[in-house]
Structure formats: structure tokens, C-alpha cells
Amino acid sequence: MNFLAHIYLSGNNDLIKIGNFMADGIRGKQYEHLPADIQKGILLHRAIDTYTDSHPIFREGTKRLHEKYHHYAGVIMDVFYDHFLAKNWQQYSEEKLADFVERFYQSLRDNYELLTEKTQGMMPYMIERNWLLNYQYKEGIARILFQMDQRTKNNSKMQYSINELEQYYPLFESEFTRFFEDLRAHAAEKLNSL
Hints:
mainly alpha; 11 helices
């Protein structure tokens, strides 16, 4: 899962959301100096990633992408799935997506000193371009995939995966809907055990 799903699956605790959001940049046990709730968010993130990567529905989607995008297939699927979460947000939350996103951005501003250097550097671009809200639009996803491809010096070719999103759109969306129910249950269980 990409940013939006990780934040959504963190419940209502802002620090758990922040930990879950910035966990990709934290290796091993480099988080042990952080507040307890941020640590919980990091551990939750890792549990979500492990569950997602091994789930048969998610793996079915990555198979469709693997021939062209190789080990980037999972990264692309994460972005696709954030698109479907954002697009169908009203099925998963009573709060408007715009309000949820703005509250999260505000919590990043309010807890700036707790963010990793990488997250502090990324935050202004994310907020200015409103990545999380724009996930709901295919154009927003295309922009994100293009930016991710640029970071790999165009080696990943991720920007072209928008074609597969278009080609298999109903199938990817149906798979997401089934998978996300499983993931929500798993994440809630993990969150309760932390």
C-alpha cells in the first residue's frame, strides 16, 4: 500500500499515522528513540507491507505488471491501490477525503520536529501538490508514477504503467475491493496488539 492507505489504516492517532507514513525511510531499529506511538506506526507499516506483499489477490495484480516492470510491479500496485481507495473513499470513511487529508497535513506541520529528515524534505512538495487528494484522479496517479520514474532515472518505466491501469481498470478495482477488506481486518488486529 502507498501513503494514503497506510495513513487510513492507522486509526485516529496522529502519531501512529505519522510513524506509518514515514516508516519506509527507517531501517532496522532506527526508530527506538522516537515516541511510542510513532514506533507503533512504524511496526504497523511493516505488518501491512508484509501482509500485502504475500496476499494472493495483490500478487495476482503484480503478475499482470511483472513482465514490463519487474521488481517495480509491487510499487506500482501500491499506487494503483491508493487510487482506488481515494476514488471510493466514501465507502470507507464518513469523513470527506479532503478533510481527512488536510487534517493529516496539519498533523505533519504540528509534529515537524518528529519527522525524519527525508519526510521533512518531501512534505512541502506533497502538501503543495496535494498528492493524497489527487490520488483519486487518474491524472494524479499518472503524475505520481512519472515522478517516481524520474527518481529511478527512467529505469523503472513506471510512468507507462498508467496504460495497464487503463487496460485492466475494472479488474484492478475489483481486486482492490476484495483485498482491502482483508487488509482492513488484518491492520485493525495488528493495531490492537501493539
